[in-house]
Design brief:
single chain; about 190 residues; two-stranded antiparallel sheet; flat
C-alpha cells in the first residue's frame, strides 16, 4: 500500500505532537518530584506521621499545612486554627468548592455589563483568598526552617512565582527546624 504525501505529513505531525506531549508530561512529573522531595524531607525532620504523603497530589498540601507547629492565623487572626489540619480543610473547601461556586456564578454573565462585573469581582475575591491561604502556608514553613529570613517576601514571591517556591522549599529543607521534634522511628 502506497501512502500519499498528505498521509505522511499527517502522520509526521501526529508523531511530533505525541513527542511534545510526552516531553511535557515528563517535565511535569520531574517538576512534581523535585517539589515533593523537600516537603517529604521537612516532614521527616519535624517528626510528622506519614511523611510519604508528600509524594501524593493534594495530600502533599496537607503535609505542607502539617509541617509547622504553630497555629494558623488568617486575616490578622480573624480566622484562627490551633489544629493545622482544619486550615487544610479550609484550603480544600475554598479550592474545590469555591471553583464550583465560581462556575455557577458564571451564569450571571448573561446580565449585560453588570453580570460580568459581578462575576469578575467574585472571581478576583476567590483567587485572592486562595493566594492568602497559600501565602500563610508557605510563610509558616519558612518561619519554621528559616526564622531569621525575610519570610514575608519569600511567601509572596512563592505564591506569585512558583519556581521561587520550589527553590525556597529546597533551601528550607536543607536547614534544621527552629522547633525540633524527635523524628518518629518507623522500624
Amino acid at each position: 500500500m502506497i501512502m500519499s504525501n498528505d498521509s505522511l505529513l499527517g502522520l509526521s505531525i501526529l508523531g511530533i505532537i505525541a513527542v511534545i506531549f510526552i516531553m511535557i508530561f515528563a517535565i511535569a512529573i520531574i517538576t512534581y518530584l523535585i517539589s515533593a522531595y523537600p516537603i517529604y524531607k521537612m516532614a521527616k525532620k519535624m517528626g510528622r506521621a506519614n511523611p510519604w504523603l508528600a509524594w501524593i497530589p493534594i495530600a502533599n498540601t496537607y503535609m505542607m499545612f502539617a509541617i509547622p507547629e504553630k497555629p494558623v492565623d488568617l486575616f490578622n487572626g480573624k480566622i484562627h486554627f490551633e489544629d493545622r489540619s482544619k486550615a487544610f480543610l479550609l484550603w480544600l473547601a475554598i479550592t474545590y468548592g469555591g471553583s464550583a461556586i465560581i462556575g455557577m456564578a458564571s451564569m450571571v454573565t448573561v446580565i449585560p455589563i453588570l453580570g460580568t462585573i459581578i462575576y469578575m469581582v467574585l472571581y478576583m475575591a476567590y483567587i485572592a483568598v486562595i493566594y492568602i491561604v497559600k501565602y500563610v502556608m508557605y510563610k509558616d514553613i519558612y518561619d519554621t526552617f528559616m526564622p531569621d529570613q525575610n519570610n514575608v517576601v519569600f511567601g509572596v514571591l512563592t505564591v506569585f512565582i512558583p519556581i521561587v517556591g520550589i527553590v525556597m522549599l529546597w533551601i528550607a529543607a536543607s536547614k534544621e527546624p527552629d522547633s525540633y521534634i524527635e523524628p518518629v522511628n518507623y522500624n
